Amino acid sequence: MTTQTALPDGPLAPQQRAGGENFPVALRVLPRATREHLLALYRYARFVDDLGDEPVPGLSARARTAALDAFEAEVHELYDGRPVRHPVLRGLAPTVSACRLPAGPLLRLIEANRVDQTVTRYETVEQLVGYCSLSADPVGELVLHVFGRPEPALIAQSDRVCTALQVLEHLQDIAEDHRRGRVYLPAADLDRFGVAETDLAAATASGALRALVHFEAGRARAWLDAGTPLVGALHGWARVAVGGYVAGGRATLRALRRSGYDPLPGPPRPRRRDIARSWLGVMIRSAG
Q: What is the mean pLDDT of residues 261-269?
């Protein structure tokens, strides 16, 4: 029996383009089937994130949670072998079958957005990492399934890369997140650097906030470095694709540095040439 709660449409309709990301979602050089699998994953993750986060007038946290619950029910129907109505899940179904995707990572992405409806602050970096284990790490695990390499050691390295990418996105979007009532900078770090939440609403970052963003970026860089050996452990198209994700993280670090660690005027976005340069460097190092 299909769920009775209608999913919102309009601004929350499935995304057709993988624009605005820090990394190439599915490089054009990849085989067509692989690209389609990766794009199906992206559309799923993007839709779930929009369902939990995209500004929609009159849509309360309770309504968002109900919509997430309804979508999760359809995910279970997909895995039960029943027909699904939602276009995102219809598009994902061939990937679930061909790549033997487990349901767990898909459901954790939904849970992350459920958490977003009630949790808007994180006291410690450990709590933030716990959130990233729901909101970001499952994507990397699913990508490894697409390439047939979902090994525990590789998933652990992928988790470090994905957590780093999530934290870097949070740093880019400090101002936007604050306007939505959310702060992803750990409260302990805000206190340590003497940054008040009101500082996040300024037109430009104070010296203290710049120092804090620099510190958080350095921690993300360390996580990215710890996960980068994953690229060398992969082969063929898997190495090419995952190398692109790592390169996007490195290019984002460069963008933050170029902004003087001030994301408040607007999210510092990586330039395409920086992503390409970083990707080439990652590929050369992984081959060596």
A: 97
- The number of helix segments (H) and strand segments (E) in the chain equals 13, 0
The C-alpha atoms of residue 222 and residue 239 are separated, in whole angstroms, by 20
Residues spanned by the domain of 160? 121-288
Distance (Å, whole) CA 95 – CA 102: 11
Beta-carbon contacts of 243 under 8 Å, excluding residues fewer than 6 positions away, are 231, 279, 282, 283, 286
pTM for this model (two decimals): 0.90
One domain for residues 148 and 285: yes
Residues 6 or more apart whose CB falls under 8 angstroms from that of 270 comprise 22, 248, 251, 252, 254, 255
Whether residue 92 has pLDDT greater than 80: yes
Distances (CA, A) of 141 to 42, 95, 103: 13, 14, 11
Tokens of 116: 């977003």
Please give the tally of structural domains in the chain. Answer: 2
> pLDDT digit string (tens) for 184-213?
999 999 999 999 999 999 999 999 999 999
For residue 201, tell me if it sits in a domain: yes
Give CA–CA dist 200/1, Å, rounded: 46
> Apex CA 203: angle with CA 58 and CA 211, to 5°?
115
Amino acid at 9: D
Nearest CA to 22 among 272, 205, 284, 232? 272
Q: Residue 244 has which token pair?
A: 């692109």
DSSP 6: P
Q: Are residues 250 and 138 in the same domain?
A: yes
In a domain, 147, yes or no: yes
Burial 153-165 (b: 16+ CB within 10 A, else e): ebbebbbbbbbbb
